[in-house]
Write a structure and sequence with these properties.
Layout lengths: L1 E7 L2 E5 L7 E4 L5 H11 L3 H5 L9 E5 L2 E11 L10 E10 L5 E5 L4 H9 L8 H37 L2 H34 L6 H67 L11 H24 L4
Parallel strand pairs: 3-7
Antiparallel strand pairs: 1-2, 1-3, 4-5, 5-6, 6-7
Helix pairs in contact: 3-4, 4-5, 4-6, 5-6, 6-7
């Protein structure tokens, strides 16, 4: 789907052709000929329009034939969630500025950042495409921060369930959260480095106000990266703690089973002694049987007392 938007007197109008559009948004599904036609109409090399269709595309920026391309990673909810998949993943979004200062965004999937930008597009200044690009950056980092908070909330919920039940489902859920954080760490680090390089080289030819805004965005991405690092460290510590608890509980169970086995085997051991073909006192009287029982009880009690003192029970 290709949408064309024009900002007239602070009002957003969706038009039917790229001519005169301030912002063009491309989201699957679309036809190959639509991309070809858009490439010709906007004088944009076709490969720049299709780079982000590869979800593994890294964050970067470049200029080709006077057309500027910026690719950054954005978070999305994993729609095709399997048992071992991450709950959230990152996908690339490309922002293209052609020689006519038209801004084109190309998404491999629909994402929240672009929807937010659309909702505030009426407030943007179409005569300043750099500021429009920076505002998209702002929506992306806000999306990262909100999703990170959601991930931390889910982590707390899964941990509480794990405290109460110790089921494998909660462990798998925590593993999915951990995978999401790994994706976020990689994407945020890549975005941060790209923005820092853009700021250093002034890739967008920003004025002083825009450079200040870009510096603030670098700080925002750094803070989001720090949040992701913090949540990752907390989750790693939690997983290690649960692993230690499970291992300790297993050792305790094994000790108890060993102690119980020893205590249960005591009467059989005593009876085995009295069953040997040797002479024992009182073996031909009823006192012999009682004597064997008393010995079994006493030895069992002493054994239980010993294991209890060693805290095996």
């Amino acid at each position: 789907m290709i949408q064309y938007f024009k900002n007239i007197n602070r009002q957003t109008l969706e038009i039917q052709s790229p001519e005169g559009a301030n912002w063009i948004n491309v989201t699957p599904p679309f036809q190959e000929n639509e991309i070809d036609n858009l490439s010709k109409a906007l004088s944009i090399p076709r490969d720049l329009l299709t780079d982000t269709l590869d979800i593994e595309e890294r964050a970067r920026f470049e200029i080709e034939d006077g057309v500027r391309l910026i690719i950054l990673k954005t978070p999305v909810d994993n729609k095709s969630l399997n048992e071992g998949d991450a709950e959230f993943v990152t996908i690339p979004i490309s922002i293209i500025i052609n020689e006519r200062n038209q801004v084109v965004t190309v998404n491999s999937f629909e994402n929240v950042a672009i929807r937010r930008f659309l909702n505030t597009f009426a407030k943007r200044h179409p005569e300043r495409p750099n500021m429009m690009v920076l505002k998209i950056f702002e929506k992306v980092v806000m999306d990262f921060q909100e999703v990170l908070k959601e991930i931390n909330h889910r982590r707390n919920v899964y941990e509480q369930k794990l405290y109460d039940s110790n089921r494998n489902e909660e462990l798998l859920a925590l593993m999915r959260v951990q995978k999401s954080l790994v994706y976020f760490l990689t994407a945020l680090r890549s975005n941060e480095l790209m923005l820092m390089k853009m700021e250093r080289t002034n890739f967008l030819n920003c004025d002083e106000e825009e450079l200040d805004f870009l510096s603030d965005l670098v700080v925002e991405f750094s803070q989001a990266l720090e949040m992701a690092n913090t949540y990752t460290n907390i989750l790693s510590s939690t997983m290690d703690a649960f692993a230690s608890i499970i291992n300790n509980n297993m050792n305790i169970v094994i000790k108890r089973l060993t102690a119980i086995t020893i205590v249960i085997s005591v009467p059989g051991l005593v009876a085995g002694f009295f069953g040997m073909n040797v002479v024992f006192p009182y073996e031909n009287t009823t006192l012999g049987f009682l004597f064997a029982i008393v010995i079994s009880i006493v030895v069992s009690i002493v054994t239980v007392f010993y294991f209890n003192k060693k805290k095996w029970f």
